[in-house]
Amino acid sequence: MSDVKKIATRESYGNALAELGAKYDNLVVLDADLAAATKTGIFKKAFPERHIDCGIAECNMVGIAAGLAATGKIPFVSSFAMFAAGRAFEQVRNSVGYPKLNVKIGATHAGISVGEDGATHQCNEDLALMRTIPGMVVLNPSDDVEAKAAVAAAIEHEGPVYIRFGRLATPVINDTPDYKFEIGKGVTLREGKDVTIIATGLCVAESLAAAEKLAADGIDAKVINIHTIKPLDEELVIAAAKATGKVVTVEEHSVIGGLGSAVCDCLSANAPTPVLKIGVNDVFGESGPAVKLIAKYGLDAEGIYSKVKAWM
Predict the structure, then answer these.
(1) Per CATH, is 6-171 categorized as 3.40.50.970?
(2) Which residues are catalytic?
(3) Among 107, 180, 185, 230, which is least packed by CB within 10 angstroms?
(4) 3-class secondary structure for the chain?
């Protein structure tokens, strides 16, 4: 994938906010002293009067956003996933989720690809936490194109939305003329008859590469990109499971409570199917270069290929 254009989805987030700021004059962006890292600084440069730095006070930031939403603004609160979903969970639940306020959460630096920041900052629990909040839409875009589309869709959606972004530059895979983003709709990227690989976030590009390796071994894998963890595209998941008889989920998140759990909940109720969950296996991350960590935790193309092949 070395010749493919690579962009970190946190960059896409900052660029999307700046572009959409011109279209929506009620769009406001709040940050917790991390505008350079979350890339909301791009919006701040364009619309300084609509960017609020709340300091290192994430819980307070969510409360301010709730107040702004109650007056008709569309606030985006931004911080690392560990703080936006973790530290401020109670405020997100009670001040945003419970009153169904129109607050958007832009959570960057999710998963183990935060790299050198280590276990304390590598949030592998955010999708699970956000899924449990009633009415919360949970998005995890796979590349630059999808990340920008997700931000635009979140603005159009009335109600709370959580969007997960990464620190690591990832390949652009959705730059096709017919690409269309719709909340709650998965995208079939590759047809196959032997097994379905359902991936989300940065694992989508790696799963596509793994499918090519499997094809060389005579295993025909269907690949589905699930950018919306909640509401899940159950129709697509069930149809794929029935067609191939085996399902693999791949996520840069704990295997507990994320995409894998959502898919298993869906299939156990509607179409019982053997499922292999690939993700972070009930362990904390560690400090190290992002690319090496992804390989160590088996979330790169080679790791996905090996696990699927052994399971098949």
Answers:
(1) yes
(2) 58
(3) 180
(4) CCCCCEEEHHHHHHHHHHHHHHHCCCEEEEECCCHHHHCCHHHHHHCHHHEEECCCCHHHHHHHHHHHHHCCCEEEEEEEHHHHHHHCHHHHHHHHHCCCCCCEEEEECECHHHHHHCCCCCECCHHHHHHCCCCCEEECCCCHHHHHHHHHHHHHCCCCEEEECCCCEEECCCCCCCCCCCCCCCEEEECCCCEEEEECCCHHHHHHHHHHHHHHCCCCEEEEECCEEECCCHHHHHHHHHHHCCEEEEEEEECCCCHHHHHHHHHHHHCCCCEEEEEECCCCCCCCCHHHHHHHCCCCHHHHHHHHHHHC
